[in-house]
Amino acid sequence: MKKLPFQKRTLALIVVLVPLLALFVYVALRSGPLAPVSVVLATVENKGLSPALFGIGTVEARYTYKIGPTFAGRVKHLDVHVGDRVKAGQVLGKIDPVDLDERIKAQNAALKRANAQLSEAQARKDYAQIQASRYDQLLKARSTSEEVVATKQQELLVAEAGLTAAREELSRVRSEQAALEAQRSNLSLIAPVDGLVVSRDADPGTTVVAGQAVVELIDPNTIWVNVRFDQIRAQGLAAGLSARITLRSQAGKQHVGRVLRVEPLADAVTEETLAKIVFDKIPDPMPPIGELAEVTISLPTLAAAPVIPNAAIRHIDGRLGVWQVINGDLRFTRISLGTADLEGHVQVREGLKIGDKVVAYSENTLNKRSRIHVVDHIKGVAR
Predict the structure, then answer these.
(1) Tell me, what's the pLDDT at 17?
(2) 49 touches 302 (CB < 8 A)
(3) What is the pLDDT of residue 252?
(4) Is the peptide bond before 285 cis (omega within 30 degrees of 0)?
């Protein structure tokens, strides 16, 4: 076989390698590490945001009534159960006073003794008064000495003090007797308002002390949501603002409400602002006390300012900024942000102007040497 000359072999090798090299470069630039990164751009707009606050809270009763005896006793019977609705003045149960009759008898005996002591003190005072007057007359007739008269006056003062003490003791005993008699007429547990029974804290036969709750009522018409908001985002939160409430048990259904008040005391540990949100119309059925609720507060619309999507914000080397596209080239621009809304937009205070182009989404992580290819949409990213 005849060998090709050296020049012809070299030329043939070049003819084969050049297309392969071109193909390699093409593939590297199109799909390799040197390939451009697909990006979606956003334009800085002049727009007035309608910011909103989002918080999590729990359904609570604005008014709670803990009903129990005013004295120690035993629960005789209860006529209501958890979930029952009651009317104001309705009898919920009765208390057995246990030893109330014995205490009343003892108090009656004490009252008799106090009356007897008062009568005795009155007699001593009257006698001392007569003696003091008699010896005062004898002194005028020079039939006794001034020392004897002074002694009689002292005895009168002692008798008057004894009478005063006896009267006070009688008053005290009568007050205690009246209190015991009031207990006798206060054996029933009465509902102070129309309400809903949410707890029975003692069953019949249970011994309770004065002030211990036996039945707990709430006013179902005044439930509210106790909500926590991030202090950083709570600027502008005020009473009267409208609210949208979503109960966990009614996902997808929103209830209309408003901010009743913003609490003057914040949570210093969690750095949250507390607020009370009331329903414009109480949900039916009423949500359980303690149920979680998601609350969105609509804040007043802000004046128009430069706005970008939240998705465009990047943190690189501890710096906050965006990838800005200038004449097709990338540049990381530091920015200062303002208020954000719940629709994914945020105000830009410094760093950008209206009409600037920034990268909202990118197929891969960008750097200052990245080549980009602008597209309308990146697969897998929500529009």
Answers:
(1) 66
(2) yes
(3) 82
(4) yes
Q: Indicate which CATH number applies to the domain containing 236.
A: 2.40.30.170
DSSP 37-49: EEEEEEE-EEE--
Identify the pLDDT of residue 96: 83
The pLDDT of residue 381 is 67
Q: Residue 95: CB partners within 8 Å, gap ≥ 6?
A: 69, 71, 73, 74, 75, 76, 187, 188, 189, 208
pLDDT at 2: 46
Residue type, 136: D
The Cβ of residue 71 has, within 10 Å, a number of other Cβ atoms equal to 20
Residue 21, both tokens: 């090299």
pLDDT of residue 218: 94
Decide: helix, strand or coil at residue 134: helix
81 in Cβ contact with 200 (< 8 Å): yes
| 119 and 146 share one domain | yes
Overall domain count for the chain: 4
Cα–Cα separations (whole angstroms), residue 299 to 226, 244, 247, 267, 281:
18, 12, 21, 22, 21
Same domain as 224, residue 214: no
Q: Are residues 361 and 327 in the same domain?
A: yes
Within the chain, which residues score under 50 in pLDDT? Answer: 1-2, 4, 28-29, 32
Average pLDDT, the chain: 85
- DSSP strands (E only) in 215-253: 215-218, 223-230, 242-247
What's the domain range around 246? 52-61+220-298
Helical H segments across the chain, by residue range: 6-31, 100-140, 146-184
Q: Is residue 338 part of a domain?
A: yes
245 and 272 share a domain?
yes
Cα 139–Cα 140–Cα 145 angle in degrees, nearest 5: 20
Predicted pLDDT of residue 1: 45
